[in-house]
């Protein structure tokens, strides 16, 4: 059984995330979407909200589960015996950070590979940060976040 992990902050999940999760679910037997809980990073959406938004977005993906973690990703990967960390790569600007993370994770756990999926063209400039900014000013985010969670995300960000 080939298990992959898609880690991230997901504050909140976007259509870009969902695209990567979907494509990972076709490549691997099982996928865990792993929500990072970091005491040093302030998120707009709570841990529970981020998990619920992801769950509501992946109801059609039967081999995908959601979990949370704090600490080192490499330790989690070892614990669940995953063979891959799947990340989406957008512009060149993502590359240096992701390359560093991949090398650090490889050094900590040589058994797991980081697999980069190139973002779909329409998600090239999409990020959770952009979604938060746009919705915070009342902008339209309907093309940026999964349809199933649009209302919940709008409600939270407009009242934030
Ligand atoms: O969506 P993000 O914020 O880009 O996700 C980053 C995340 C959570 C995947 C990354 O920061 C992470 O893996 N954090 C856990 C700490 C860790 O293991 N870092 C890599 C080795 S130093």
Characterise the protein shown here.
The chain has 160 residues and is an alpha/beta fold. Helices cover 42% and strands 19% of the residues. The protein contains six helices and five strands, in the order E-H-E-H-E-H-E-H-E-H-H. It has a five-stranded parallel sheet, sandwiched between helices. Helix 2 (47-57) links the parallel strand 2 (30-36) and strand 3. The structure holds 4'-phosphopantetheine. Residues 7-9, 36, 72-74, 101, 104-105 line the site of 4'-phosphopantetheine.
Quick recap:
The protein is α/β, with parallel strands linked by helices and 160 residues long. 42% of the residues lie in helices and 19% in strands.
Short key terms for the protein model shown above:
5 strands; 160 residues; binds 4'-phosphopantetheine; alpha/beta
Topology overview:
Elements: E1 3-8, H1 15-27, E2 30-36, H2 47-57, E3 64-69, H3 73-80, E4 84-89, H4 92-108, E5 113-118, H5 128-136, H6 150-158
Parallel strand pairs: 1-2, 1-4, 2-3, 4-5
The structure holds 4'-phosphopantetheine.
Residues 7-9, 36, 72-74, 101, 104-105 line the site of 4'-phosphopantetheine.
Number of helices: 6
Between the first and last Cα atoms, what is the distance in angstroms? 42 Å
- Identify the strand order in the major beta sheet: 3-2-1-4-5
Instruction: Estimate what percentage of residues fall within beta strands.
Output: 15-25%
The largest pleated sheet is described as: 5 strands, parallel
Identify the overall geometry: globular
- Give me the count of strands: 5
* SSE-based structural type: alpha/beta
Ligand inventory reads: 4'-phosphopantetheine
Summed over residues and divided by their number, the pLDDT gives a mean of 96
Helical amount among residues, as a percent range? 40-55%
Q: Uncertain segments of ≥5 residues (pLDDT<50)?
A: none
Q: What is the rounded Rg?
A: 15 Å
N to C succession of SSEs: EHEHEHEHEHH
